[in-house]
Design a protein that fits this description.
This protein has helices spanning 2-23, 52-56, 59-66, 94-98, 142-156, 191-211, 225-232, 234-246, 269-272, 285-292, 326-334, and strands spanning 28-35, 39-46, 71-76, 79-85, 92-93, 110-114, 119-122, 132-135, 162-167, 217-222, 252-258, 276-279, 307-312, 315-323, 365-367. It is an alpha/beta fold. Strands 5, 6, 7, 8, 9, 10, 11, 12, 13, 14 and 15 form an eleven-stranded mixed β-sheet that branches. A four-stranded antiparallel β-sheet has the order 1-2-4-3. The longest helix has 22 residues, at 2-23.
Length: 368
């Protein structure tokens, strides 16, 4: 009965959206809708001659029609999509999501679910990924997403495949992982120890280059990169720059969090060396453009609390980040560490259902 009620609600909302478009003489119809734990998305089919800008200019009116705080309008293939944050979003728990995901390739963290409800993973070993920047204001969920990535890497990969290095100037974000067996070095919680860690990584990178090795891959997580660079000065920026420019060949990947990648303290560090950006809520359209690197991303309309855009090759994917609770992290840390023998294989995709879909099982979207 719940699915029937949900379908009827979506049909009624689609009718209200079409009424708004019709009242402004925009010829288009709603073809379908998808419900995920954090948002409701409708697919709009414009009539020939209708411009996308005609629909995007009505974002406030469309949000008003559904009583939503905002409507994000984007183009996807031959359609226009309308995305609305749910009034009572549901969290995506990491443990529950991992139960749906078959064994991914090595060094591939689980991020959460995309706008279709499909689990989203990030293959760090891909030349199109290599390094990742996570940006957003306070409360956007940057550190929580990084913790999810750390936990999933530890859960899916033995220490012989992946090692982790954690730099946390605040000393709080990565604290639950201090006993993680995957740690290559102790958790760095000051600018001085952070700089020492970066220098060690640079030396390790050079050693790997000489010996032509990449395994185990080392994934470096830096919380609040701008703060670290502000305290540590040019030495920190130079050390991170070396890693993101040359680290991939040696199996070293950098995942850095920052509130504002446009901060002058970072210089040109983030502009061209992070192929993938994961952007949470920002204060303005200009901040959204700088953070994502693409115009009209709509990041300023994100709801926060794990609502992100994944930007790669100029394309954006909506992400609801999974949340790793402390008990889930403890279970990963305290489990026996043994080589993983499960065969890594690609799942067989199932077709995506249309209006009224809640979650799609059996699919996964791989970035990279």
């Amino acid at each position: 009965m719940g699915a029937v009620v949900q379908r009827e609600r979506l049909e009624a909302q689609a009718d209200r959206l079409e009424a708004v478009l019709y009242s402004h003489k925009v010829r288009a119809h709603i073809q379908g809708g998808v419900v995920t734990p954090s948002l409701v998305r409708f697919r709009v089919v414009p009539a020939p001659g209708v411009k996308v800008t005609q629909i995007s200019r009505l974002s406030e009116e469309l949000a008003l029609a559904l009583g939503s705080s905002a409507c994000r309008v984007t183009r996807r293939d031959a359609y226009v999509e309308l995305e609305f944050a749910r009034r009572k979003p549901k969290s995506v728990r990491l443990a529950a999501l991992m139960a749906r995901v078959p064994m991914p390739p090595a060094a591939t963290p689980l991020l959460g679910i995309d706008a279709d409800g499909v689990p989203m993973l990030l293959r760090l070993s891909s030349p199109d990924v290599a390094h990742v920047l996570i940006a957003g204001t306070t409360g956007s969920g940057k550190t929580a997403l990084a913790r999810t990535m750390i936990a999933s890497l530890a859960a899916y990969n033995p220490t012989s495949e992946v090692g982790l290095v954690l730099i946390d100037p605040k000393g709080r974000g990565y604290e639950p992982f201090t006993a993680l067996p995957h740690l290559v070095l102790p958790l760095a919680t000051t600018a001085d120890t952070g700089l020492e860690t970066l220098h060690w990584l640079a030396a390790e990178m050079e050693r790997r280059d000489r010996e032509r090795i990449t395994i185990p891959r080392i994934v470096v997580f830096i919380d609040e990169l701008a703060d670290l660079a502000l305290v540590g000065g040019k030495a920190v920026e130079k050390a991170v720059l070396r890693l993101v420019q040359r680290g991939r060949e040696g199996g070293i990947h950098v995942i850095a969090c920052t509130q504002k990648p446009a901060a002058t303290i970072l210089g040109g560090l983030v502009k061209s060396n992070f192929p993938v950006r994961i952007v949470g809520s920002v204060a303005s359209a200009e901040d959204a453009r700088v953070a994502t690197g693409v115009p009209g991303s709509g990041a300023e309309r994100l709801a926060g609390r794990g609502d992100f855009l994944v930007v790669t090759h100029g394309r954006t994917h909506r992400l609801q980040a999974a949340y790793a609770a402390l008990d889930e992290i403890d279970a990963i840390i305290n489990r026996p560490v043994a080589p993983i023998t499960v065969k890594r294989r690609e799942p067989r995709p199932r077709p995506v259902r249309d209006l009224g879909q809640v979650l799609v099982d059996g699919l996964r979207r791989m970035i990279g």
